[in-house]
Structure formats: C-alpha cells, structure tokens
Amino acid sequence: FLDARAKELVAGGMMVLIMPGIPFGTPHSQTVAGMLFDLLEASLMDMTKEGLVNEELVDSFNLPVCAASPKEMEELVEENDCFSIERMELTNPKSKVETPIKAVTYTRHLRAGMEGIFSKHFGTGIIDELFYRFEK
After folding, report:
1. For a Cys-Cys bond, which of 3, 72, 97, 126 suits 68, CB 3.0-4.6 Å?
2. Could you tell me the keywords of this UniProt record (predicted)?
3. How far apart are CA 90 and CA 108, in angstroms?
4. 130 phi and psi, to 5 degrees?
5. Cα–Cα distances in Å, from 114 out to 50, 63, 78?
6. What is the DSSP string of 86-108?
C-alpha cells in the first residue's frame, strides 16, 4: 500500500491516512473489529460445514484488512522509507456513541463496507444468509 501511494504523490506532497487501528499491546481478537471479523468468519465456516459455501473458496479468501498499533505503523513507515510521520492521532470511536450499538447496526455497517468484496469472491447468492447469520 505504501509503495503504491508513494508512486502517486508529487515530490513534497502529503498524505493523510484515516484507518482502523488497535491500541498498543492489545491482541486483535480482543478489539471490537477483531471480534466482529471472528464472528463473520464463524458464520462463513458454519455455512461451509452445511454445504452452502464451497470450502475451496473459503480457503482462498483473503480479507484485505489491516489494523496496526501506532508502533507497528511507525515500523511499517520506517521500513518502507518513502514517507515520514508528521503527526499521528488516536481517536476513541466509542467517545461519540451515546447508547449501546445494536447488532443490526453493526451488521449493516459491516455489510455496507464488505458486501462487494464477499460478492466478488463468493457470488451474490450467499450474502443475505451470511449477514443474517452474522447478526444472529
């Protein structure tokens, strides 16, 4: 990603990244995003066990999501050697949430962002069932 963006920027240009991340030292599975993706994976695996999804398609699926800690992001930028970090801010998305978020809301947000990726790989026929199971 960083190599590709470096080729696009003009000399002296600046890039702003807004991306998911994880607090330093927090295992991915203990983050909200990690738990959501684990549930989505479980839904997909259940459908595979029931013969609704081809196991080879599941095995070849790669969800291009990266959630790095600030330290990991610094290391990636340093290793890439095309950019420098001028400023890094961490936000708490929960700080704007006044009430608990319902499962249907999480499901709709995840589906809005991921449906295209799943449809392209698995076809559109499984999408409704996959996100129905995820929500339940």
Report:
1. 72
2. Magnesium, Metal-binding, Methyltransferase, Transferase
3. 25
4. -60, -50
5. 23, 9, 30
6. S------GGGG--SPPPHHHHHH
Q: Give the residue carrying structure tokens 């801010």.
A: 89
| Coil/strand/helix, residue 110 | helix
Please state the pTM of the whole predicted model: 0.67
Q: Are 43 and 69 in contact (CB under 8 A)?
A: no
Q: Which residue has the tokens 């599975």?
A: 29
CB count within 10 Å of CB 34 equals 16
Q: What is the pLDDT of residues 52-84, one digit of tens each?
A: 999 999 999 987 777 778 888 899 999 999 999
List of residues 6+ apart from 55 with CB closer than 8 A? 48
